[in-house]
Write a structure and sequence with these properties.
With 93 residues, this protein is an all-alpha fold. The protein has one domain: Chorismate mutase (Chorismate Mutase Domain, subunit A), CATH 1.20.59.10. The protein contains three helices and no strands. α1 crosses α3 and α2 packs antiparallel against α3. It starts with a helix and ends in a 5-residue tail after the last helix. It binds prephenic acid. Prephenic acid binds next to α1, α2 and α3. Its EC number is 5.4.99.5.
């Protein structure tokens, strides 16, 4: 078994990548909501969310971690929608 410090180093590296990707995803989410505002479309798109989760479960092949992957993706989209609502309300950048 590897020691705690080594494993934490790997987690730190993953966190760095994830933060970069998360912030990029949020930028794209803002782009989407600005499009939606212009075209009078609702923030919430149930079909799109379901399609994302199913596609990621299929390609990610998470095995026994499937429920956690589903929770992770749903949490990401909740955060994305919160941000979109903020932009819509005019509180965004
Ligand atoms: O694809 C969209 O329509 C988005 O607004 C993006 C996004 C997401 O964060 O993935 C957010 C809200 C929608 O309910 C679906 C997906």
């Amino acid at each position: 078994m590897r020691n705690l410090e080594e494993v934490r180093k790997d987690i730190d590296a993953i966190n760095q990548e994830m933060v970069r990707l998360f912030l990029r995803r949020m930028e794209l989410s803002e782009e989407v909501v600005r499009y939606k505002m212009e075209h009078q479309l609702p923030i919430y798109d149930k079909e799109r969310e379901q399609a994302i989760v199913e596609a990621m479960v299929k390609t990610g092949d998470p095995g026994h971690l499937e429920a956690y992957l589903r929770d992770f993706l749903k949490a990401l989209m909740e955060i994305s929608k919160d941000y979109q609502q903020e932009v819509l309300d005019g509180e965004g950048p």
